[in-house]
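Lecture 7 notes: from sequence to structure.

We start with a single chain of 248 residues. Read the sequence below before looking at the structure.
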Amino acid sequence: MTVQVSGLTLAGPRGTVVEDVSFALGRGEALGIVGESGSGKSLTLRSIIGLLPPGIHRVSGEITVQGRVGMVFQDPQTALDPLAMVGAQVAEVVRYARGVRRAAARERALDLMRQVQMPDPERRFRAYPHQLSGGQRQRIVIAMALATDPEILLCDEPTTALDVTVQRQILLLLERLRTELSLAMIFVSHDLAVVEQVSSWLLVMEQGRVVERGATADVIAHPEHPYTRRLLESVLALPRLDGEKVAG
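Now the structure, written as tokens:
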């Protein structure tokens, strides 16, 4: 397995925040973790690479990661440096990851921008974050995550701040990248309609515990836990992914 989490328990100043979470994921597989704010889903994700907030620590459990990890954050506005050109930010990650010279890093950064279907990458290489749309900024964040040549891609609510049309485009992009690069992908969201479109396996979390798990289609078609049913009742369905070209 590329990622294996066994009995993960996290605690903070007010007590346990994640309790006894376990799952395993191989190359090319996609796991969705869904739950409301405070359910522990993002803490579970961030524990994989040790990016826990101050005051939160692992009490018990084992985490095994085999391969390089890339992470796509929720808000590209805060993930990007507002004072640096976006292409330079991608190139800097390439230089750090590959140890190459500036010119080679720039070419690789442009390749990555093309890979995430950034329109007119040569021109937008010199753009600053505020000059791009929300979807374009998120593409830059995805390109930065890919710059380390990861085997594992962690996605922490990467479509939450986007409108419904751009959400669909980013989901389509992530699904294509997972397939083409054989990535193990973990996608965290509060929205079951989003998770359904990018994951084959699903964990439902409530108040730090997994209350339901299984194949995504089975959980959505036949939810067993009342909390899962409540989440499904609150879902506004997204348009289905249909292979359209990402453009926004």
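The domain at 23-56+151-248 is CATH 3.40.50.300 (Rossmann fold). Keep this in mind for problem set 3.
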